[in-house]
């Protein structure tokens, strides 16, 4: 886990990053700026329980490409889940909380992930652990409102203008952040590489 000091605001941006691309870097940069983060931990996961592992590149390769894409020195690329044998986000967040008292975290996800978020293992626990920032993605700007999570936790939605203090809020709290969007997709990049 990267080093952090008490009082910091840190974003947690997890994914398989298979492969990492400029769209991921854009989400990270928007999160750093709009959430007033001291750091963003780019967490490269060993795998995704909801996706096939057949097309998953080796972890070391995904880390290498993530480090190449994430140029901002406040972005810390890490893969600590692998060394702790963690498969589920709820367990990752519990570990982060236990090992980092006095630090304010916010979970960061693309709006495209919000659609299926209710299928994640212990998704309600995730929402109750740290505030969540949902970053706009192409094709997901309006559909996020119909997601199970958005409907279930509608009462906990925070105005986008309060994004800089989101990490200091008590969960459940979440916001949707509009901004520039990238059309890049890891799935489409893999499919193009096959051709």
Automatic annotation (TrEMBL):
<comment type="pathway">
    <text>Cofactor biosynthesis; NAD(+) biosynthesis; deamido-NAD(+) from nicotinate D-ribonucleotide: step 1/1.</text>
</comment>
<comment type="similarity">
    <text>Belongs to the NadD family.</text>
</comment>
<feature type="domain" description="Cytidyltransferase-like">
    <location>
        <begin position="12"/>
        <end position="191"/>
    </location>
</feature>
<keyword id="KW-0520">NAD</keyword>
<keyword id="KW-0547">Nucleotide-binding</keyword>
<protein>
    <recommendedName>
        <fullName>Probable nicotinate-nucleotide adenylyltransferase</fullName>
        <ecNumber>2.7.7.18</ecNumber>
    </recommendedName>
</protein>
<keyword id="KW-0808">Transferase</keyword>
<dbReference type="InterPro" id="IPR005248">
    <property type="entry name" value="NadD/NMNAT"/>
</dbReference>
<dbReference type="GO" id="GO:0005524">
    <property type="term" value="F:ATP binding"/>
</dbReference>
<keyword id="KW-0548">Nucleotidyltransferase</keyword>
<dbReference type="GO" id="GO:0004515">
    <property type="term" value="F:nicotinate-nucleotide adenylyltransferase activity"/>
</dbReference>
<keyword id="KW-0067">ATP-binding</keyword>
<dbReference type="InterPro" id="IPR004821">
    <property type="entry name" value="Cyt_trans-like"/>
</dbReference>
<keyword id="KW-0662">Pyridine nucleotide biosynthesis</keyword>
<dbReference type="Pfam" id="PF01467">
    <property type="entry name" value="CTP_transf_like"/>
</dbReference>
<dbReference type="InterPro" id="IPR014729">
    <property type="entry name" value="Rossmann-like_a/b/a_fold"/>
</dbReference>
<dbReference type="GO" id="GO:0009435">
    <property type="term" value="P:NAD+ biosynthetic process"/>
</dbReference>
<comment type="function">
    <text>Catalyzes the reversible adenylation of nicotinate mononucleotide (NaMN) to nicotinic acid adenine dinucleotide (NaAD).</text>
</comment>
